[in-house]
Amino acid sequence: MIFIENYSAAKKFHNELMKCWFLTKLNGRYNKNTNDSGHNCNKPDCPVCSIITKRDTKIPIVFKDFLNYKNNLEILIEGKPNDLRLLNLKYKKLNLTDLESNIIKDFFVKSTYENWFQPKHGLKFLELLNYNTCVYCNRNYTKTIKDVNGNKVLISEFDHWFVKTKFPLLAISFYNLIPSCHSCNSSIKGEPKINWDRALRNYIHPYLIEKNEYFSFSYINKSMTENNVKINVKKNSKMDKTLKLFKTFEIYNSHSSLELKDLIDLRFKYPKNYIKTLFKDTFNSRLTEKEIYILIFGVEVEEKDYHKRPLSKFKHEIIKELLKEK
Q: Where are the domains of the chain?
């Protein structure tokens, strides 16, 4: 679990994009002769206003009025997680028919997120967010992969903290888009059976940094050939509940016979100060300690950079513990 920081560029891109999208879909394109209440930001590079984007005539009038009321549309686009939760409660009180609810769900989940935002703008959004690995597990990259012809063969995924099936209204809200790998997004988290009214009190939201909520990796040495991953975390804390929700212990313990064993073997094959030896002798002080960790272990050593390379938090904390041992 890694907190998301320094996301202003991604947020600005998302907010401007979604404002034009929603205003055009709700009110149509501005035309002084036929539609003076329509929208056009007049920016030549706007992905929405620079092309013909048609109004969605199927959206119920009662829902349009809801979004146009006070700052509901602004909250929908860029509201903080609890504001989104409260907005969704207001939406539920509209007493829409099943048909109207399905139209709105299809508009947000299918038309807006799955068919437009993710495939067309998800890559740029992630590049601006600049988080290379899954926020939840830090094991897998979150990247869009293209073949030699430029065709996308693997599209980067976003977890919806408020799941799309229960909260379709929030399918495209900024604080509900979490860079995630397929395993955490689908196989592990899926649709958790939790109390959503208390979810923000019980679980960590990656965009809401909580300095008192943290954990660290360690290990238990059972024998010369068997070791288990250990997680140090305050019992029943929000972080503890979040790690359990995402099966973090089970996932990382599966690495016991691989990455963990390799690190422990390396520790016993070389002297305790082998990092310093590499730094002073092998590389003759030409590389920093950070560069050596990247070169030898393929990990980042600063917490703010853990997201850049898979398994950085796990490996760095295990290595630090190994170096403390006598």
A: 8-202, 216-324
- The CA distance from 105 to 107, in Å, is 5
Which pair of tokens denotes residue 310?
Answer: 């898979």
Rounded distance between C-alpha atoms, residue 80 and residue 175, angstroms: 6
Which residues of the chain are modeled with pLDDT < 70?
A: 144-155, 187-190, 223-225, 267-286, 325-326
Q: Report how far residue 326's alpha carbon sits from residue 321's, in angstroms, rounded to the nearest whole number.
A: 10
Q: What is the pLDDT of residues 115-152, one digit of tens each?
A: 999 989 998 999 999 998 999 999 988 876 666 666 66
User: Quick one: pLDDT at residue 323?
Assistant: 73
pTM for this entry? 0.88
Burial bucket for residue 157 (CB in 10 Å: 0-12, 13-18, 19+): buried
Q: Is 42 left (phi over 0), alpha (psi -120 to 50) or beta?
A: left
* Extended beta strands in 8-114, E state: none
Q: What angle do CA 182, 210, 215 make, to 5 degrees?
A: 65
Distance CA 17, CA 59 (A): 20
Torsion-angle region of residue 177: left (phi > 0), alpha (psi -120 to 50) or beta? beta
104 near 113, Cβ under 8 Å? no
Whether the Cβ atoms of residue 45 and residue 31 lie closer than 8 Å to each other: no
Q: For residue 146, list its beta bridge partners.
A: 152
| Number of helices followed by number of strands (H, E) in the chain | 14, 6
Identify which of 179, 172, 163, 12 has the alpha carbon closest to the alpha carbon of residue 77: 172
